[in-house]
Amino acid sequence: MSSESLKEEEWLSTVKAYFEHDYRERGKVKWNGFFLSDHTAKLKEKARLAERQEQASWLPALPLDEMMARVKEAQEIIQPIRLQENQLDKDGQIPLVKEGVVSDFHREGFYLGEEKLNWESIRFVEVLHGKRS
User: Fold this and answer.
1) Which residues sit opposite 116 in a β-bridge?
2) Taking a C-beta distance cutoff of 8 angstroms, is the pair 85, 112 a contact?
3) Is the pLDDT of residue 117 over 80?
4) Strands 98-100 and 102-106: what pairing?
5) Does pTM top 0.70 for this prediction?
């Protein structure tokens, strides 16, 4: 055996002995601080969302041609829009109002930022003209 492989074997046995006898994993204790703050933040966000959801109400349904004209106008003048979809969410709640900038059009609708929306799924559109709701 070469002296190099002997050194490597000694090193491996030292490492193995350390992990078997000396090393103490703090486990969950080490991460509790992170989990607690993340968990608290998620609970607060969930409570805010639930409160907004309780206050949600249907906006007036607009004719398709009027919604199309508003979305086209918003894209041309580069203004954000506010919209509401026409179906209940997965929990059977009225959908929250969405805001964003129209980034492009496709055959059945348009993109609000990265989100693809179809005309048939929308009930209300408003051009914000520099204001926020």
Assistant:
1) 111
2) no
3) yes
4) unpaired
5) no
Q: How many residues are listed for the chain in this entry?
A: 133
Q: From the centroid of its chain, how far is CA 10? A: 51
Chain position carrying tokens 């609000």: 112
Token reading at 50: 């639930």
Rounded to 5 degrees, φ, ψ at 105 are -115, 155
Each residue of 51-70: pLDDT tens digit?
776 677 899 999 999 999 99
Nearest to 122 by CA among 48, 45, 78, 68: 68
For residues 66 and 126, is the Cβ–Cβ distance under 8 A?
no
Q: Is 57 helix (H, G, I), strand (E, B) or coil?
A: coil
pLDDT tens digit sequence for 18-62 = 888 887 766 666 666 666 677 778 888 887 777 776 677 899 999
Give me the pLDDT at residue 93, please.
Answer: 84
Beta bridge partners of 95: none
**DSSP string of 19-32, one letter each residue:** IIII----THHHHH
Round to whole Å and give the CA distance between 123 and 62. Answer: 6
